[in-house]
Write a structure and sequence with these properties.
mainly beta, about 55% strand
């Protein structure tokens, strides 16, 4: 339940490199899919996902890309760490020369 709703990307690190030129990207999580919103308003790609709450931290897999990751929610901050090699990362970090992306988002209050 805490995951559902709209989140704005505030930080993204890919393969150890900070991505400073992010557009105003939002992610809307529904029960079975996440949708990107470009510039905070334009609906874009829809990604079905599955959650695994038995893992600690919780696991998430985006389909059909099979990007597997971990996530945590602390107040209004969502942190997702994804591995393009379909492995669960062991920590919330994107080391240099890795296939891991770290995304931090802030809940959009309506």
């Amino acid at each position: 339940e805490d995951l559902l709703g709209e989140w704005q990307v505030t930080r993204r690190v890919t393969n150890g490199n900070f991505n400073p030129d992010l557009p105003l990207l939002h992610m809307i999580f529904k029960r079975d899919a996440m949708q990107h919103l470009l510039n905070g308003t334009q609906p874009a790609t829809l990604f079905p996902y599955t959650l695994d709450a038995t893992k600690n931290p919780a696991g998430i897999t985006f389909l059909p890309a099979n990007e597997t990751g971990i996530l945590k929610i602390e107040g209004d901050v969502l942190t997702i760490c994804l591995d393009k090699e379909n492995r669960y990362p062991t920590e919330f970090n994107s080391p240099l020369n890795s296939t891991i992306t770290l995304i931090q988002l802030r809940r959009v209050k309506k």
